[in-house]
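User: Is it possible to get a 3D structure for a protein together with its bound compound? The compound here is zinc ion. I've pasted both below.
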Amino acid sequence: MNKIPSFQKNHNALLPGFYFSTLQQGVATFDLRFKQPNCGDYLSPAVSHSIEHMIATAIRNGSAKDNIIYFGPMGCRTGFYLLTVHLPPAQALRCLKEAARAALLMPAVPGAKKIECGNYKSHDLPGAKRELQLYLQLLESLTDAQIARQEALYEAAL
Ligand SMILES: [Zn+2]
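Assistant: Yes, that's possible. Here is the predicted structure of the complex:
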């Protein structure tokens, strides 16, 4: 079997960050890396699950809601995937920051009732907010050059 793009990435050199990954059939995949791979520090299942509910809700209610295809966790619990259409990296980054700020204001995890979720007891609102705060700080610290690099990769994939 062919090695899929996610596995072709060198995870030994991957730092936490915001990365454009692929563009397929017009759908862009962004790698939202919260944790450095294989370094012993991972998102807990409950935190990962709550962030999924919170950001999926916030970003699908945000300024580019029609451009959002999917937001969900990586099985390795070091981050999330964001799938978009017609949303270049700088714009996707803006939406993500907006969603993280909205999520930090949430009084409860959305969709966390038994009727709404497949594992409704596995949530951690304070833990999710701690990790989102850290990731938002990382996003806000990205330099223009780092964002331009992602834009260039996206342009090259068009
Ligand atoms: Zn759920």
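The beta strands are 17-24, 27-33, 68-73, 79-85. Helices lie at 5-8, 45-59, 89-104, 125-140, 144-157.
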